[in-house]
Amino acid sequence: MSKLSASRVHESVQSLIDMHEHPAVLIDRAYRIVAANRAYRTTYGVKSEQLIGRHCYEISHHRDSPCHLHGEDCPHQQVFARGEIQRVVHTHFDGKGRPEYVGIKGHPVVLPDGEIYLGESIQRLAPPEAMNCEEMRMVGRSRPLLHAIDQLSQAAASPAPVLLAGESGVGKELAARYLHDHSPRRGGPFVAIDCTTLPESLFESEMFGHEAGAFTGCVGRKAGLFEDARNGTLFLDEIGEIPLAMQAKLLRVLESGTFRRVGGREALHADIRLVAATNRDLRNAVATGRFREDLYYRIACITIALPSLRERRADIPLLVEALLARINAANGRHARLSEAAWTRLMRHDFPGNVRELRNVLQRAVALCHGQIIEPGDLGLEEADADTGAPVAPNWGGLEREQLEALAERYHGKRRAMADALGISERTLYRRLRRHGFAAPRTGT
């Protein structure tokens, strides 16, 4: 870009983008940042000279090529190809190199002479401190996970009930906490209950509380979950396990907004935001009479499907790094995976999802000799033990993400990547070319 062009951009647009309350940048067709507003420079602790002329994917995503080449949605493509506004969720890195989830709105900015630029406004969804390893967090940058986080972020602002659907172990309680932490009720309590642990005989007492003497052995008043969660969020995990008779009682509270403690006369207001979760197909349960249709539509105002680990296999390296850091810290260890152990992990289907991955790593850290985790320490059985054939990777729509993760893990070494996938180097080469990747080097 010429000095004249840069000067024109600065004079015509800088004052305008400085008025934007969120961090914002202006990007040219070659992915170079040509302007950054005051909010961006303040938020990320950088000066204009550290940004101007550098590629957006280098600054924001710590990559050496554009986002769309790594399977991510890229506003640059949409804006310059069609002149359309696009909203996406990305993993962004702050001025200290820490990851955070952000919502990006890209829109065309047209100068008087007709030159088009990409204007990007950035809104933080989860700051760096919410993505550390002190507790289990939603970790990853694959397209399925970012799509789910985008939906969670939009749903968080609404008071409407949310139903989280997904396999066991995908992190439904983490998603529920995300909804709470980003909602207007974030200052209130977050109360979670696993419905599989509620016996039918105690359902009303646990949900709505009881008065002294309400039943045999009851010696005092007890607040229920609806009271405990007042002004906050009530998370009902595995709601599909509630017996039909109890479903009717829950529905009455959700419809009327009031309830009474067992043995009580005072009508109490159910001031909660309901988030429910299930690993069942509730539509099928409704069709077969195992779940009330009216309750289903009451709790499923917004339904969000959380991806399995198989669907976001590219996130395994990031998850392993976060989980190992936490496990090592708790056990005073410095264990790490050998290359063979990495290969074994990347080939496993993880039917138990992130929960299974965590358990596998906990076992491996406990049983490994020294600080190196070998395949045998993982305790994973080969799914193809009878045939001796390599485990087939789960390609589907996530082939790009898996190739991206493996390229990072094996530093672009083609033979090591092929071995991890159980395919030949020739097959790997064809798949890389199909997705527009530069061919990695040979060797191990």
From TrEMBL:
Keywords carried by this UniProt record: ATP-binding, Nucleotide-binding, Transcription, Transcription regulation
Organism: Acidiferrobacter thiooxydans
Record-linked SMART domains: AAA
SUPFAM superfamilies: Homeodomain-like, P-loop containing nucleoside triphosphate hydrolases, PYP-like sensor domain (PAS domain)
Protein name: Fis family transcriptional regulator
Taxonomic lineage: Bacteria, Pseudomonadati, Pseudomonadota, Gammaproteobacteria, Acidiferrobacterales
CDD domains for this protein: AAA, PAS
Key word Transcription present: yes
InterPro entries: AAA+_ATPase (IPR003593), AAA_lid_NorR (IPR058031), Homeodomain-like_sf (IPR009057), HTH_Fis (IPR002197), P-loop_NTPase (IPR027417), PAS (IPR000014), PAS-like_dom_sf (IPR035965), PAS_4 (IPR013656)
Claim: Transcription regulation is one of the keywords in the record: yes
Entry's Gene Ontology BP terms: regulation of DNA-templated transcription
GO terms, molecular function: ATP binding; sequence-specific DNA binding
